[in-house]
Fold:
Amino acid sequence: MTTLLAGDIGGTKTLLSLFEANGLNLLAQVRYASADWADLAPMVRHFLGQPEALSHPRPSAACFAVAGPVYGGKAQLTNLPWKLEEGRLACDCTLEQVALVNDFAVLIYGLPHLGALQRASVRQGEASAGEPVLVLGAGTGLGVAIGLPTPNGLLAMASEAAHAEFAPRSDDEWQLRQWLLADLGLQRLSIERVVSGTGLGHVARWLMSQEKAAGDHPLAAEGRRWQGEEPSGEGSRADLPAAVAEAAAAGDPLASKALRLWLGAYGAVTGDLALGCLARGDIWLAGGTAAKQLEGLRSTPFSEAFLAKGRLSSTLEPIPITAILDPTIGSFSAACRARMLLLG
Structure:
């Protein structure tokens, strides 16, 4: 049996996994606190020395998805002092082949291999073979990557499109923009300030700032804790976006409006980015909100904004949109990339 080592490395946690190459079945997995380790190599050696890993053949290839840019086989992590290099990792960990890939761009390599339980349709359509693929991920921020078709499968291209300027489409969005610029002390407002899980919290805060009785709204105290204006008591989530989603599901008018505004902005940005790379091959929505907001993504506010592109609406109409439901998609995709190393 041939095995693969996959790593999903973030500033807070790192997930190391061992996969079977043939069926991409998970064999072993350990979660580590990233800051507890001086470098990735000692962590990898520790993982490969665990009984659950030792009971399987040593991996023939490895891919590490890292939270930061990757250039020429080297990576400097955004929130860790680690400086990684493919050749050095291969030597230090006794691995034959190693690849470093940006932690969002790596998702491109997993898309063709997702099973039915790992995905769900958001919008029906017909993908065009041999055309670019777009993946977006609204979580704490907004990730964007493009998959370019090649004879050897999709080639992942990282993107910073989420940091382009947010373009308001309505009076509400214009007022939201102006309020956020002042509230956050910004000179410009990027897309991910609105289109992200964090953005949903900001939209709700803006709406509460417009209401005379906003201080009495059930979400007001959660918002203050989320912003650090009040200490979080024991057992308090201090998670305004999650609280907004729950309140919207329960029928709260302000939370429902916040969610509609957020879904509209998300749909509009998805359409803009799809036009930017002519993503006729498929559009995928990842990130922590994809599974949590599946019904919202299937709703009219998202789909109407996605298609509202004037003369180019017909270009977007045939493109399907799919949500990624698997919370471990980063590790799975890294395993898919590692398998590609074996195939040359």
